Amino acid sequence: MPPPGAIPPYMLKAADLLDAGRHQDAKSLLMLSAKKGAPARAFMLLALACEGLAEREAALFHFERARAADPRDPEIALQSADLLQNAGRIDEALRVIDAFHRSSPPDPALLMLRSAILAKSGRAQEALAAAEDGLRILPGNIDLLSAKGLALQSLSRYDEAIAAYREGNVGMRVAQALQELNDIYNVIDEARADVVRAPREVSTHGFLAWAMNYDDRASVAEVTAAHVAYGDAVAAKITPDQRWKCVPIPDRRLRVGIVSPDLRQHAVVSFLRPLLTHYDKSRCEILCYSISPVSDRITQELKGLVDGWRDLPNAAEGVIAERCRDDAVDVLIDLCGLTRGNKTPAFGYTPAPVQVTYLGYPNTTGLRTMNYRVVDAITDPPGSEGAATETLLRVDPCFLCYTPLVGAPDLQERVPARDRPIALGSFNLPMKMSATNLRLWARVLEALPSATLLLKHATLSSQPIHDVLLRRMREAGVDVSRVRIVPPTKGYFEHLATYFDMDIALDTYPYHGTTTTCEAMWMGVPVVTLAGDRHAARVGCSLLSVVGASELIATDADDYVRRVVELAGDPVRLGRYHSPGPEGLRARMLASPLCDGPRFARSFESLIRGAWKSWCASRGSDRA
Description:
By secondary structure, this protein is of the alpha/beta class. Helices cover 49% and strands 9% of the residues. A 7-stranded parallel beta sheet has the order 3-2-1-4-5-6-7, with helices on one face. Strand 1 (254-260), helix 15 (267-278) and strand 2 form a beta-alpha-beta unit.
């Protein structure tokens, strides 16, 4: 029996198992050992194991046991309140924190969490007051300075938020605040500094690699190197495990898994829905692994399209990997790359023999364990293989398939462009508007002295974000008196109707639009794009080519300006694009492979089947 105060060996072993991502093993051990009268932290470890397995109610039950055993343990209170707020039980989370502080000295991490919960709940002013109250008790505390910064950020007081983060030397918070401001180059500079400060941290490498997709100054080799560094950081912490339950029979029915935080109201669904609607259920089954805590009507619709669904909100990467491995997934597809909410390191555990990244991210993942990346011959032409750690699989003529927008406004006849000034526009994320991009737009406006430029994005309703964009536009030579920021609209129908105010859409560079390009074309608005030297700068080229509008693709800056000016001066041609008839862009989209879901599903299935057969061949199997 261990001496009084000593940690029982089973708890030490359970903690090691949790650190290794072996949540099921930790749970099994603790269920056997953590009996009545066990230390409070044994119940906490059991709760953490259940939380990692996405068993939320069980985790909450065991946290309650832990708090009852020791109501003065700050770590138990912290972990318990954090799970409650992730479950949307905000008032209960706040009560746990307040109950702790009624009987114990102030705890910085709990005070920080209290402020963060208030900020996320839309109570930013209360969050700021809570952080400042904590700093009066514990001046200079890093956790509380971080909480203060988050509260100020929620109030759009970005300069003060950044000052608080800098005072506390709070990791990636400065870069993330600058990202919210869409301040591209300062984001990248801060992200680089974060990597220097924490060279082994996966998240810092991932954030830098993601941000570099927007950098018009970086070469393809530099952007690729940042992604490879991310992959190396993952590999340094995760050991692949090639013990699979899959049987290598080339032509059997395949089990395909899809991992994403975006299986909800999200742009990704516009391109995923055709595949889920039209895949051949006799040839493959699809299991979706939703790693978002958000569920909505779109989630329910998608659940009805597939064979299986796993909700894994807040699950650890190792748990996601084990769930996929236990499900005997043959081909596992990542839909988000390095975007927000990703759990891409789960693929480092190799939970499936064939691993594919597709759709939600415009670059390589950098993971050596990710076998394939789905692209097309325009986004990634032959010769671009060196920019990916994965083998490229090409779906031609376009790697995307778009869901036609049911319920969108009907196309209408427009006032001919000859009878009024031309309206140019972009509804893209301002982060995509690089200096190169803005200089191009300045040249276009100079060449079309009566034209206006319409910009619309939800973030531009924030005055500081609006001001940063206008500052960057002035620096690039844009006459901002001719720029009109369109306010947010009530709903999606009203958003789409705003395209009737636009004659020509201007694509961004070097990170093209995707959903915005499809929306514009669906509403009859031609999109002029500049072809670049990387996937992100060629998606617009693929979309325009597949609908038969390659005449809108420019090869260099001069060509971009020329094509916009020529189109603006040709009202007959503009009218054809805008037309609700067969020459219009909406009709061309509908008649093209871009909106042919059954065709795309067959092509995608063929690609996946080929990848599976390659793996089977590598295992020495050619059985049918």
